[in-house]
What we know:
It is built from 8 helices and no strands. The chain has about 290 residues and is mostly helical. It has one domain.
Amino acid sequence: MSNxxxxxxxxxxxxxxxxxxxxxxxxxxxxxxxxxxxxSALDHVxxxxxxxSVDATSERLLQDDAVSNQDLKSYRSLSDVDEERxxxxxxxxxxxxxxxxxxRLLGDFANTDASARAEAxxxxxxxxxxSLGGQLRARRSALNxxxxxxxxxxxxxxxxxxxxxxxLERRKETIRLELQTQEALLGELAAEIDHDVRxxxxxxxxxxxxxxxxxxxxxxxxxxxxxxxRAILTSRSALDELANGKDAGTxxxxxxxxxxxxxxxxxxxxxxLASIDGLLxxxxxxxx
Length: 288
């Protein structure tokens, strides 16, 4: 090979490597955007789910009191369940935001100019995330590292820079576990709150909507009656979006796995973003 041909060959290789680096940077930047959008959407959903859960318990207490006078022990037995669930939801919200912070740092690792800053910050973020994830798993006996861990270890793809590859090799399974924890908890919360709402929704509609409407006198506070009716008829929305949040969490995890393995495309991440944006727009309306 002549010197001129050799130089041309190395120039072509350099261009290809640069293009590969840019694609990798774009993919991780897009994924970081998706992680932030997911955290924002899920935050709205979890706030609405917490409110729905408390409202359902309040209705259950009123329903029980209509049958027989309640004592403090009866109240505490139901209220304690609410308090435990609210603690779990609060920790899950914090956990979600730490995941988003980690994904933003991955985007920085993919950018050579920002990788040093990312390396300085990532340890504290992952330590907090792992600690919070451990607390969440400890609160739910069905959630443990053995049952959640992936069967096949992730293999880091070749088309990443050295700093990013080192980070992924070190923490890919940790992040996968935390994403699996999110999925499992969202599924459990949706099932629990769904049961509560199903038990109490009809009773509440009878008490605050139907009974006043059937009274001979006109409804005294029409605006409050309409608000109550709307809240009852739309109480399923928070639960539906909680289930959708679990689905979005599953998609986020599988996209992360493909991203680490070098199999993901920008089109796949764009589809994930579109899905999460849809969740965000509906979720935001739940807490207005």
